[in-house]
């Protein structure tokens, strides 16, 4: 006899407030009282304002209770806390594409080095022992738990859950993740998580979305990082800017993201060489061990030749990986650019990590070169507040800037030229995001994810106006959603989005309670925070 079922219910919440620390939690409840707890990404918080969130998971977040973890891509704001998840008790598999797993190893090994270095610096400064977020053994254990899946193949993980990894141009190995929850005599629930999304990728073919996926009833979780801009807003100025600086015989410093942004910029330089707009004799340096290790992976896997002539890798690892793309090109590997070469007046191009200039070797080179009028800096990515890049963006020429060079403070007067380019973003713009939604005729709802508050609201209105799905909700760590099949049941405040906030709120509420008790007789009865929060049901007005 078949069990009569009404529906599959589930809760949706997330850990990220805006565009960092990405983690989406979905808890499914089946009619047989079995629950499945799923995590999409587990990123580190890179923004200074949210750094405290890194150290503890929220009190209701028990890593050992998660059944499945899926990774959309290997940028550190999406994968950087996976080892902490494992350290705190998660013991099941982590699923990604094969290409993502290859990059994940480099990303996490670099991240743990940074965490250990920062912990050492803080320990010396405060004269107390500060433990890093996790250690090398946690990273190794995490990597051993990763299982890979192919694009466009559906995998039955258990009797009720299947997953399909779909193509995504955001980064090599990036994917969108389709989860399908089914139960006998219940309607299947299909959830599509885009992760950070881009239409295509320069270095690998992006598999198309199968027709059967397009025709599904879907709730889509879509990023909105650049949801307030369109492709027509992009100002393509990098080529002319670089050529003009070369013609002025300047040394050009390009802060780049180690993974893929460095390859994008190298490809653009190669194209300028091929067009005889800049000389192939100009020395080009790619500096940073991590960037060089990513370079080797991309040289092996890229579908196109992105390597310019006269390239030197500046790395502490001298592993001469040769691929069919490198071929007969002569690529030197050195440990550091010689001081005389760094200070010479001859034109050269230096690509250095990090993209926001406050980590890696960027502070070192900029502290050495920024005082010269014969130097130009071209930023190739977004720079957030409280970063060196942001400081340089707003500094007046002739003023001093303080650089943190391997833990030492170095002051340098800024006399160089500084400019910014917005054309290298790997995120789709609003018009491309709308085009993506139009591929799916049976959208049942959209959750707007991964963007600052204002941008999410702007893009949500765009989706309502142009797509008109049954609902458009904004995903944020301050909110959780209770769902039944494809319908919203409850939208409620997630007041305790971290242990820090729980403690802070509890103290404040206790103080308020005592003050009200003095004013009112009889004294009101204690009621649990948890019960009251459940009663605070409110609709979100976009």
Give a verbal description of the structure.
By secondary structure, the protein is of the alpha/beta class. 29% of the residues lie in helices and 23% in strands. It folds into two domains: 9-229 and 425-499, Ribonuclease Z/Hydroxyacylglutathione hydrolase-like (Metallo-beta-lactamase, Chain A); 235-420, 3-Layer(aba) Sandwich (Rossmann fold). It has helices spanning 76-79, 82-87, 98-126, 136-144, 211-214, 238-247, 261-274, 289-301, 339-343, 362-369, 388-394, 430-437, 453-466, 499-519, 529-535; strands at 9-14, 24-29, 35-40, 68-70, 94-97, 146-149, 154-156, 161-167, 175-181, 189-193, 218-223, 251-255, 284-287, 311-314, 332-334, 348-352, 375-379, 400-405, 408-413, 417-420, 443-449, 472-474, 479-484, 487-493. The chain has an eight-stranded mixed beta sheet. Helix 3 runs antiparallel to helix 8 (289-301). Mean pLDDT is 87; it is low at 1-5, 495-500 and 521-542.
Provide tags for this entry.
single chain, 542 residues, Rossmann fold, 7-stranded mixed sheet, 29% helix, globular
Topology:
Blueprint: E1 9-14, E2 24-29, E3 35-40, E4 68-70, H1 76-79, H2 82-87, E5 94-97, H3 98-126, H4 136-144, E6 146-149, E7 154-156, E8 161-167, E9 175-181, E10 189-193, H5 211-214, E11 218-223, H6 238-247, E12 251-255, H7 261-274, E13 284-287, H8 289-301, E14 311-314, E15 332-334, H9 339-343, E16 348-352, H10 362-369, E17 375-379, H11 388-394, E18 400-405, E19 408-413, E20 417-420, H12 430-437, E21 443-449, H13 453-466, E22 472-474, E23 479-484, E24 487-493, H14 499-519, H15 529-535
Parallel strand pairs: 3-4, 4-5, 5-6, 10-11, 11-21, 12-16, 12-17, 13-14, 13-16, 14-15, 17-20, 21-22
Antiparallel strand pairs: 1-2, 1-23, 2-3, 7-8, 8-9, 9-10, 18-19, 23-24
Helix pairs in contact: 3-8
């Amino acid at each position: 006899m078949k069990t009569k079922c009404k529906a599959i219910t589930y809760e949706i919440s997330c850990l990220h407030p805006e565009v960092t620390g990405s983690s989406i939690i979905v808890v499914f409840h089946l009619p047989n009282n079995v629950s499945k707890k799923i995590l999409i990404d587990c990123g580190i918080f890179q923004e200074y304002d949210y750094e405290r969130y890194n150290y503890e998971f929220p009190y209701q977040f028990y890593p050992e209770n998660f059944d499945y973890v899926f990774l959309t891509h290997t940028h550190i704001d999406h994968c950087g806390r996976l080892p902490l998840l494992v350290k705190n008790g998660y013991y099941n598999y982590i699923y990604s594409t094969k290409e993502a797993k290859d990059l994940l190893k480099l990303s996490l090994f670099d991240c743990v080095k940074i965490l250990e270095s920062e912990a050492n610096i803080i320990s010396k400064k405060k004269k107390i022992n500060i433990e890093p977020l996790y250690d090398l053994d946690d990273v190794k254990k995490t990597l051993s738990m990763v299982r890979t899946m192919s694009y466009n193949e559906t995998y039955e993980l258990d009797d009720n859950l299947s997953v399909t990894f779909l193509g995504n141009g955001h980064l090599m190995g990036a994917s969108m993740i389709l989860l399908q929850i089914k139960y006998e005599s219940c309607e299947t629930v299909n959830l599509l998580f885009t992760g950070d999304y881009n239409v295509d990728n320069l270095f690998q073919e992006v598999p198309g979305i199968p027709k059967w996926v397009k025709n599904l009833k879907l709730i889509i979780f879509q990023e909105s990082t650049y949801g307030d801009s369109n492709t027509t807003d992009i100002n393509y100025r990098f080529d002319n800017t670089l050529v003009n600086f070369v013609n002025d015989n300047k040394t050009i410093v390009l802060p780049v993201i180690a993974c893929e942004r460095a390859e994008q910029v190298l490809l653009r330089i190669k194209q300028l060489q091929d067009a005889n707009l800049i000389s192939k004799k100009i020395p080009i340096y790619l500096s940073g061990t991590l960037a060089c290790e990513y370079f080797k992976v991309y040289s092996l896997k890229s579908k196109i030749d992105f390597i310019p002539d006269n390239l030197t890798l500046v790395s502490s690892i001298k592993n001469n990986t040769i691929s069919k793309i490198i071929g007969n090109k002569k690529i030197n590997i050195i440990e550091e650019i010689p001081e005389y070469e760094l200070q010479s007046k001859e034109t050269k191009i230096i690509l250095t990590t990090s993209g926001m200039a406050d980590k890696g070797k960027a502070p070192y080179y900029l502290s050495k070169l920024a005082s010269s009028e014969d130097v130009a800096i071209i930023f190739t990515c977004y720079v957030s507040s409280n970063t060196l890049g942001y400081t340089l963006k707003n500094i007046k020429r002739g003023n001093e800037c303080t650089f943190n060079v391997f833990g030492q403070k170095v002051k340098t007067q800024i006399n160089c030229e500084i400019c910014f380019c917005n054309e290298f973003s790997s995120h789709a713009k609003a018009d491309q995001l709308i085009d993506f939604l139009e591929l799916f005729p049976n959208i049942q709802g959209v959750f707007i994810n991964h963007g600052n508050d204002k941008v999410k609201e702007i893009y949500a209105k765009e989706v309502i106006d142009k797509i008109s799905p049954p609902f458009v909700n904004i995903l944020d760590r301050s909110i959780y959603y209770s769902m039944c099949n494809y319908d919203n049941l409850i939208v409620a405040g997630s007041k305790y989005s971290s242990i820090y906030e729980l403690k802070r709120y509890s103290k404040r509420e206790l103080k308020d309670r005592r003050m009200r008790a003095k004013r009112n007789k009889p004294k009101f009865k204690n009621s649990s925070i948890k019960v009251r929060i459940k009663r605070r049901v409110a609709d979100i007005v976009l």
